[in-house]
Amino acid sequence: MQELTKLDDVYAEVAVLRPLYQDGAGDGTEVILRSGERFWQGRQIKSVRTALARLYGVDLVALRSKYGRLLGRSSSVPLPLSPRLTLVPLRLRQPRCRGDACLGYVSFREVKEVREYASGCFRSLIVLASGVQVEVLSRRRIVLEHLSAARLVEDYYLRQNGWIGGREGATLEDRIGILFRALTERYLA
């Protein structure tokens, strides 16, 4: 796995942020792109997540608060960073020592399938659109609940920001948002 020197170059293609212990390098983050390419960041996942949010110009505390109220919870809140990237927090690793992160983040739109899986402490497997498989500590039912919450958050985010909505009686901003979303899906997907 090659070292990723600048997250700036690939941030629009992020599919998974996974905490990972790398031999000889310690605790860091594996960045998996939509294409399936894998990179290593020598920073802990919290730092990489914060850097990614900054690249999108997003306040993580405000997002967690807003969407936590929508879901009626304060933890495991999906984070919509852009119309194409809603990060779903999932338990992706067993920590080795106190203070190590176990939560990783999977892009809601990149999840193709969730399977039952039993290998060691892992209980489910997420298959991404690229074919990459990501092991998850939680059971399939829990992963599906997190994905349902992400769907709700993403839908609310898109509606609030004018990316989706009915055409009848839509404001000019809504129509521009609908047009921009259609163009984005067609040319940037």
Characterize the structure shown.
The protein is α+β, with helices and mostly antiparallel strands and about 190 residues long. It has one domain (about 1-160). It has helices at about 45-55, 60-70, 140-160, 170-189, and strands spanning about 1-5, 15-20, 25-35, 40, 80, 85-90, 105, 110-120, 120-130, 135. It has a 7-stranded mixed sheet, with helices on both faces. The protein has a 3-stranded antiparallel sheet with strand order 8-9-10, covered by helices on one side. It is globular. The two termini are about 25 Å apart.
Helical percentage:
25-40%
**Total beta strand runs:** 10
Biggest β-sheet description: 7 strands, mixed
How many domain regions? 1
SSE string, helices as H and strands as E: EEEEHHEEEEEEHH
* Quaternary organization: single chain
Strand and helix layout:
Layout: E1 2-3, E2 14-22, E3 26-33, E4 38-41, H1 45-55, H2 60-71, E5 79-82, E6 85-91, E7 103-107, E8 111-119, E9 122-128, E10 133-136, H3 140-160, H4 172-188
Parallel strand pairs: 1-4
Antiparallel strand pairs: 2-3, 2-7, 3-4, 5-6, 6-7, 8-9, 9-10
Structural descriptors:
189 residues, alpha+beta, 7-stranded mixed β-sheet, 3-stranded antiparallel β-sheet, 4 helices, globular
Quick summary:
This protein is of the alpha+beta class and 189 residues long. The chain has one domain (2-160). The protein has helices at 45-55, 60-71, 140-160, 172-188, and strands at 2-3, 14-22, 26-33, 38-41, 79-82, 85-91, 103-107, 111-119, 122-128, 133-136.
